[in-house]
Write a structure and sequence with these properties.
The complex is a heterotrimer.
Chain A (H helix, E strand, L loop, with lengths): L41 H40 L12 H8 L1 H34 L2 H16 L3 H11 L7 H7 L4 H4 L5 H26 L3 H9 L4 H12 L1 H15 L4 H9 L10 H10 L4 H25 L8
Helix pairs in contact in A: 1-14, 2-14, 3-4, 3-8, 3-11, 4-8, 9-10, 11-14, 13-14
Chain B lengths: L2 H18 L21 E5 L4 H10 L5 E5 L8 H12 L6 E3 L5 H6 L14 H4 L4 H4 L3 E2 L2 E2 L2 E2 L1 E2 L2 E6 H7 L7 H14 L13 H9 L5 E4 L2 E3 L5 H16 L12 H5 L4 E5 L2 H9 L7 E4 L19 E4 L5 H16 L1 H4 L6 E2 L5 H11 L5 H13 L12 H14 L4 H18 L3 E3 L3
Parallel strand pairs in B: 1-2, 1-3, 10-15
Antiparallel strand pairs in B: 3-13, 4-5, 6-13, 7-14, 8-11, 8-12, 9-10
Helix pairs in contact in B: 8-10, 17-18
Chain C lengths: L2 H30 L13 H13 L4 H33 L5 H13 L6 H10 L6 H9 L2 H14 L2 H9 L4 H12 L1 H17 L2 H6 L8 H10 L8 H4 L6 H36 L1
Helix pairs in contact in C: 1-14, 2-14, 3-6, 3-7, 3-10, 3-12, 4-7, 7-10, 10-14, 12-14
Classes of the chains: A mainly alpha, B alpha+beta, C mainly alpha.
């Protein structure tokens, strides 16, 4: 569960994907044979019962973790969020009211949405474009390119942020010419709040794109050659093949990519937090919803408010998550 | 096995958890009920510039064992408070003495939820009485002294004596003169500045000095905050003029790009510690150029007042007793009022009055400031006229300022716009922290 | 468009994008090889990097080593828990029938796609109710909850472990436990490498969970510690030179960054070899 909280990548692709022939990602629809109907003899009846007991022991450790690390905290947060401010009794929705009436509530969501509006299209167009170009290339050259795109992803999490800190400081940056072109001379001018969504979008694209190029590459790779050949015989040029054959084949993955990254936007924390520090408070200390709930828990010390904010975030991301699970079609390997 | 069983499990676990978090009643501000005694060993947390204070204490009291931890925190950072929340939950871990990285930290440390700092009124009455009232009044919370000031940090008017002489200016005495001269300097000598607006201390420097009620604490959850007050509007109009004229830099004193500008700072209100800490050590302005004049006053005010920037506060734990408490109080006396730290080593003007003259004598020998006697007189005067009704609150006015006013100015918006955003945010944050905002006291 | 032109355009585009991706990383690596004592970067050489690392080690009496050690504990421990708990669960979900199976599978999918940081504050409330904040083993255990790993092994067993094989084993009289031990686990080696790798990387780079649950600076992990180095650097706050005796400029920060990233890169290289081999072995085995 506790995958990288900073990298925009969903670690769904096996690392083998960076080798010359990427294996398809592990969540490819699998149509393995279902269990045959069980014969109703006394003997197999016992096996099924024994199987149940075995299954119980096999799933027990994980189920405990699921409870401790997932369901109990969520349930507890819901209960806590319904307490009154002094945590002495039932408070109804008052903590939600306090959260929503906080000036920063709408603002933090606005910040995240703005970042997503810039980042998601960049991610979709960039990743699809690169994946198609790589797919159209020779195996060797394509693999080399894929590896280079994956490179920044190896500097995962905080390490990637450190790299970016160095990139966006005109005093240090190897792309200082770019900042000077914008008329920026200092870190505070580059990292001013109005630019933050763009910087974050670029940062997330930089660290996440490579993985998705690999993932989509796997999808493109699994398109049967006959299909492509048939399209070519029909007179389609390279663009036509890409547009009319390849793109529809990887469409469910694009939905998956969009939804996952959408949910990811709501977990931004580190980047605005440290940028706020190094710019001496130029960025609001509570720039994202997560920072706000952290502030409720540790600074304002209003536990019901922190719980309420978490429940709101959970509701949003669970909604997105349900959409992923139900609609993307990548998970229905059994009906 | 996960269906009904799991749901029942969640319910049981949740109920158990609620039982665990039952509340305790409110406690006083003296020694806590759970206080312990280490037998003498004390733990102190200080930022790097205060490390010499601990070393000096260890030399002076070699028989008191001291554990020291270095902390560093930016203004408005939540990291320190996070640790104290943990200590309160665990019932252990608090330091015995702490130098707060930011003065506003006092607000949560004294708040009834964390309630870490002890009431020093009785135990250290002899030390407290040595402070000028303006230096210690921010430590007085609901009638109790809950911290000691390390150094007095009143604002004076700093100016570059050489530039003033070369350009034929006289140091202004009032804010109105300061504004007029600033506008003139901006016109006559472009590239030179007469102030910094982009740091977390800027609201202290300008708003506090004017008496603008931003942090007037009326109670634990009551605050007087009103940016429509005439004392706010006059400083707003003044700053608006300076910004429009290009006289004041939108960057902050701690910013890396301030180093260059610091050497082209003609004059500015600023705390006593600016002399050594900023001009000499950070901006590296050559000796013999900088000096200080008495704080600016508003010509309409009957009394002259100034403000205070930083200055450092010491807090001491409620969770100790016996020998550990005795040694901690010995440490408290040492860092607040012993010349071996305050005169010999500290970079700021001592908070306690009797040590101010010895400290000034030592600074005179260092020979950094121009016109030392005038500057020294300005320091001493300023430390006695710090404007009251400005407290440290749990919302951080400086942080709100840096992420509203500073970016607005950096991106070229008008000061008027920046000011209205600041006012709205400030009241909003005060409310988010549970304060009821009052328009008047 | 003539095909040759299209081909050239494609290659040039890919190369330009590759340059955009590689250039910052390469430039940052060069910074790590420079020397800077506050007067600007000079020189280039491995000796500089070594000196910078010694400087980083002097920060707060070598707290960086504590951070690295803690990261190693939570990342490795979390990965082990994730494998040990996830493998049997993935197997049971894939190949056994039991009540609550669909619910467990659904919960797994759901917790897998919800970003983990939104669970951190609820976890903090839970853990602090039990008074277990600042306990590295609690954090390790929580990191061991890794639904994505369960999902991976689930998929793996469904693709590589045919039902008839299991049926045959049952008819041969093997108990369900034996089947899991003697058939499922050997078939699962690639899945173990995969889950271990992903979970290690995820734990190593996790920032929010240790930030909230390990608040003391000596007990936290490197991903929380690294930003502390940044805020102590005179690069972003010149007044830091006045107080601190350990001064971290760009080369020191870059070296610390690469040391932080090294385990992830190392695990990546190791796992990649194991995985490509494993994937060839897996299906042919049964």
């Amino acid at each position: 569960m506790y995958r990288s909280s900073q990298t925009g990548r969903w670690p769904a692709s096996p690392p083998a994907g960076t080798t010359a022939r990427p294996a398809p990602p592990p969540y490819t629809p699998v149509h393995a044979a279902d269990l045959p109907p069980l014969p109703r003899t006394r003997r197999t009846g016992r096996v099924v019962r024994v199987g149940r007991r075995a299954a119980f022991f096999l799933v027990l450790p994980y189920t405990v973790l699921l409870l401790v690390g997932g369901l109990v905290p969520v349930g507890y947060a819901v209960v806590k969020s319904l307490q009154n401010e002094s945590e002495t009794g039932f408070g109804g929705l008052s903590s939600y009211q306090r959260v929503v009436s906080d000036l920063r509530f709408a603002e933090t969501f606005g910040n995240v949405l703005l970042t997503l509006v810039i980042w998601l299209p960049l991610m979709l167009v960039g990743v699809v474009g690169l994946a198609l170009l790589v797919d159209a290339s020779s195996a060797r050259f394509g693999a080399a390119m894929r590896f280079v795109y994956y490179l920044p992803g190896a500097l995962a999490g905080v390490a990637n942020f450190m790299l970016w800190l160095f990139l966006i400081d005109p005093g240090q940056s190897p792309v200082a010419f770019l900042w000077h072109g914008f008329g920026y001379r200092t870190l505070n001018e580059v990292a001013q709040p109005g630019n933050l969504p763009y910087i974050l979008a670029a940062m997330l694209f930089f660290q996440g794109a490579g993985t998705w190029v690999v993932v989509l590459g796997g999808g493109l790779h699994s398109i049967p050659d006959e299909l492509l050949e048939a399209a070519r015989l029909d007179g389609a040029d390279a663009w036509g093949v890409a547009w009319r054959v390849k793109l529809p084949m990887i469409r469910p993955w694009l939905g998956y990519l969009t939804l996952l990254n959408l949910a990811y936007g709501f977990q931004l924390f580190l980047e605005p937090q440290v940028l706020s520090q190094v710019t001496h408070g130029l960025i609001a200390p509570q720039w994202t919803p997560n920072q706000l709930s952290f502030s409720y828990a540790y600074q304002i010390l209003d536990t019901p408010m922190a719980a309420a904010m978490s429940v709101i975030l959970l509701a949003i991301t669970l909604g997105v998550g349900l959409l992923v699970v139900r609609r993307s079609g990548l998970f229905d390997d059994e009906r | 096995m996960i269906g009904r069983g799991a749901r029942a499990g969640v319910a049981i676990a949740t109920l158990a958890l609620i039982g665990l978090t039952a509340c305790k009643g409110p406690e006083g501000t003296g020694t806590a009920d759970d206080a312990t005694d280490s037998g003498g060993r004390i733990t102190v947390w200080v930022d790097p510039p205060r490390l010499p204070a601990v070393s000096a204490f260890q030399r002076a009291y070699p028989d008191i064992p001291v554990d020291v931890m270095t902390i560093n925190g930016n203004v408005g950072s939540t990291e320190l408070q996070q640790k104290f929340v943990l200590f309160n939950q665990a019932g252990e871990g608090w330091p015995d003495a702490i130098f707060f990285p930011s003065n506003d930290d006092l607000a949560w440390a004294a708040n009834s939820k964390i309630n870490y700092v002890r009431d020093l009124t009785a135990d250290l009455a002899d030390v407290i009485s040595q402070y000028a009232p303006g230096s210690i009044s921010q430590c007085r919370i609901d009638g109790q002294y809950r911290c000691l000031r390390n150094d007095a940090a009143p604002d004076v008017l700093w100016y570059d004596k050489q530039l003033f002489a070369a350009w034929g200016y006289k140091p202004p005495a009032t804010w109105e003169d300061y504004a007029a001269l600033s506008v003139r300097i901006a016109a006559e000598h472009p590239g030179y500045v007469t102030g910094f607006l982009g740091d977390a201390y800027a609201p202290d420097r300008y708003l506090w000095a004017s008496g603008c009620p931003t942090n007037h604490r009326l109670g634990e959850r009551q605050v007087h905050l009103n940016l429509a007050d005439p004392r706010c509007e006059r400083i707003r109009d003044l700053l608006d003029r300076l910004v429009t004229a290009g006289a004041i830099a939108s960057t902050g004193i701690f910013s890396p790009d301030a180093t260059e500008l610091g050497r082209r700072l003609v004059m500015s209100p600023g705390a006593v510690w600016w002399g050594n800490f900023l001009f000499r050590d950070t901006w590296k302005v050559p000796a013999g150029r900088i000096t200080a004049a008495p704080p600016l006053r508003w010509s309409g005010d009957r009394e002259p007042y100034t403000s205070s920037e930083g200055g450092g506060l010491w807090g001491f734990s409620r969770h100790i007793k016996g020998a550990q408490l005795r040694n901690t109080l010995t440490f408290a006396r040492f860092v607040a009022a012993d010349p071996r730290w305050q005169v010999e080593l500290s970079v700021g003007l001592p908070g306690v009055v009797p040590l101010q003259q010895p400290w000034l004598d030592k600074q005179r020998q260092a020979g950094y400031l121009a016109d030392f006697d005038a500057a020294a007189a300005a320091f001493v005067l300023a430390s006695t006229i710090v404007r009251p009704e400005r407290d440290y609150t749990r919302y951080n006015t400086g942080t709100v300022w840096t992420h509203t006013v500073t970016p607005a100015l950096t991106s070229g918006r008008s000061f008027d716009h920046a000011w209205s955003v600041f006012g709205e945010r400030l009241a909003g944050e005060a409310r988010a922290f549970g304060y009821t905002v009052h328009d008047s006291a | 468009m003539p095909p040759a032109l299209g081909r050239a355009g494609r290659i040039v585009t890919l190369l330009i994008v590759a340059a955009i991706f590689a250039y910052p990383v390469a430039a940052f690596a060069l910074v790590a090889l420079r020397r800077d004592d506050g007067t600007g970067p000079t020189g280039l050489g491995l000796g500089n990097a070594r000196d910078s690392w010694t400087t980083v080690l002097r920060f707060n009496d070598g707290v960086v080593l504590n951070w690295l050690g803690n990261s190693l504990i939570v990342a490795t421990g979390g990965a082990i828990v994730a494998v040990v708990a996830g493998l049997p669960a993935g197997y049971a979900l894939a190949r056994l029938h039991f009540p609550g199976r669909r619910l467990l599978r659904f919960c797994t999918l759901l917790t897998m796609v919800v970003p983990n940081t939104v669970l951190v504050i609820p976890l903090y409330l839970e853990v602090s109710a039990f008074g277990a904040v600042n306990n590295i083993w609690v954090v390790t255990l929580l990191m061991g909850f890794y639904p994505f790993g369960v999902y991976l092994t689930y998929i793996h067993f469904r693709t590589t472990l045919p039902v008839p094989v299991l049926e045959a084993a049952r008819i041969d009289g093997l108990s369900e436990g034996d089947i899991f031990r003697r058939i499922a686990i050997p078939a699962a080696r690639p899945a173990i490498a995969l889950v271990g790798f992903f979970s290690f990387v995820a734990n190593w780079t996790n920032f929010f969970l240790p930030l909230v649950l390990l608040p003391l600076s000596s007990s936290t992990t490197i991903s929380v510690g690294l930003p502390q180095l940044v805020s102590s650097s005179p690069l972003f706050d010149p007044t830091n030179t006045a107080g601190l005796d350990v001064r971290l400029y760009a080369p020191q920060l870059a070296v610390a960054t690469f040391v932080t990233a090294a385990p992830v890169i190392a695990v990546f290289v190791i796992a990649q070899r194991a995985l490509t081999r494993g994937q060839m072995l897996g299906p042919t085995r049964r």
